[in-house]
Design goal:
Mean pLDDT: 88
Number of helices: 11
Shape: rod-shaped
Number of strands: 9
Oligomer: single chain
Largest sheet: 7 strands, mixed
Strand order of the largest sheet: 1-4-5-9-8-7-6
CATH topology of the largest domain: BirA Bifunctional Protein, domain 2
Low-confidence stretches: 1-6
Order of helices and strands: HHHHHEEHEHEEHEEEHEHH
CATH superfamily of the largest domain: Bira Bifunctional Protein, Domain 2
Radius of gyration: 44 Å
Strand content: 15-25%
Helix content: 25-40%
Distance between the termini: 93 Å
CATH class of the largest domain: Alpha Beta
């Protein structure tokens, strides 16, 4: 038998097995397979040599090559499983999560500043015994104007550019029509309610005015209600919201649904009454329009004005919030800019 044909197949197989045992990753495993078991590998080369051997040497040589091939194939399958397990273990270590670490903070939402302000106003008035009363956003012209002592062609209507839904229906221009709903529900008994909500006016949008805004209306009706009660309620509210040393003043004004009518002012929250640009150097800031409920409005609500009297007040939520925080543009509240909104969480 020639030296080439009689090479030690078993020695070759032993060397190949030793190489295989040292393999620890998929790339090296694939390289070993190409070198030994692939169509271009050593086993295939040995089988091709069988035909060049003398006839009497072909069978024993072929048997040794087949034995070596089967041994290497079995060892390859076992090592393949070992390598796969090692790769999985390394992947697990790379992607492992340390469960002892603190969790990552998740972004959370928050109340819109106007919603939060309305809830704070409600909290203050609820503590004084006022019930929160909801009224519709869409109202009949009769409820929004006529029953509030503003008949057709009344000049006060010109102060409120109105969105008309139809000839007789409007988007409410103020929360005052809720007074009629509340009085008709509770009459002839006493009542004490606040009516928060959104209002709508067909106005040019500017830093000081919007087509939509929020008001909180207050109404108290009873046999012994007086104007001094109005001042007491507003003073208690101002000191709860704007500081315990806050002061209030009432100035004569005009509203068709109250008589007498007043404007309620508080000491400027920015300058403390010294005078600044925000308060126009007067030291005072307007927060509400108010007054004794007009007898006609009481009668339209189902009360006898000779038996009971009422006080009413209304304040703009955005205006109060702007005064409290020194905000100069009302449009910020409706633009959904998170940079602005997140300041008030």
């Amino acid at each position: 038998m020639s030296a080439e044909a009689t090479q030690d197949v078993e020695a070759y197989a032993s060397r190949a097995l030793a190489e295989l045992e040292a393999v620890r990753d998929q790339k090296a495993l694939e390289a070993w397979y190409r070198a030994h078991l692939s169509p271009s590998g050593t086993i295939t080369t040995l089988r091709k040599r069988i035909g060049s051997l003398p006839p009497e040497e072909r069978k024993p040589f072929g048997a040794r090559v087949n034995t070596a091939a089967n041994t290497l194939k079995d060892a390859f399958e076992r090592q393949k499983q070992v390598v796969e397990n090692l790769e999985l273990e390394r992947a697990i270590r790379r992607e492992a999560v340390d469960v002892t670490l603190p969790s990552r903070p998740l972004p959370t939402g928050g109340l819109h500043p106007i919603t939060a302000a309305i809830r704070e106003i409600e909290r203050v008035f609820n503590a004084m015994g006022f019930e929160t009363f909801e009224s519709p956003h869409a109202e009949l012209d009769e409820l929004n104007f006529e029953l509030l002592n503003m008949p057709p062609a009344h000049p006060a209507r010109d102060m409120q550019d109105t969105f008309y839904i139809s000839e007789c229906a409007v988007l409410r221009t103020h929360t005052s029509p809720g007074q009629i709903h509340a009085m008709r529900k509770y009459a002839p008994g006493p009542l004490r309610v606040i009516l928060p909500g959104r209002c709508y006016r067909h106005e040019q949008v500017t830093p000081r005015s919007e087509m939509q805004f929020h008001q909180v209306e207050g109404l108290m009706v009873g046999p012994r209600v007086r104007l001094s009660d109005l001042k007491g309620v507003l003073l208690a509210f101002a000191r709860q919201v704007f500081g315990k040393n806050q002061q209030i003043r009432l100035r004569g004004s005009y509203f068709p649904f109250t008589e007498p009518s007043v404007e309620a002012d508080i000491r400027c929250t920015l300058c403390g009454g010294e005078g600044c640009r925000v308060c126009k150097h007067t030291g005072w800031l307007e927060i509400a329009g108010a007054g004794l409920v007009h007898p006609t409005v009481l009668r339209n609500g189902g009360y006898d004005p000779s038996v009971v009297r009422g006080i009413a007040f209304g304040m703009g939520v955005e205006r109060a919030f702007m005064l409290l925080h020194g905000i100069t543009d009302i449009r910020h509240f409706f633009q959904n800019d998170l940079r602005f909104l997140r300041q008030f969480r």
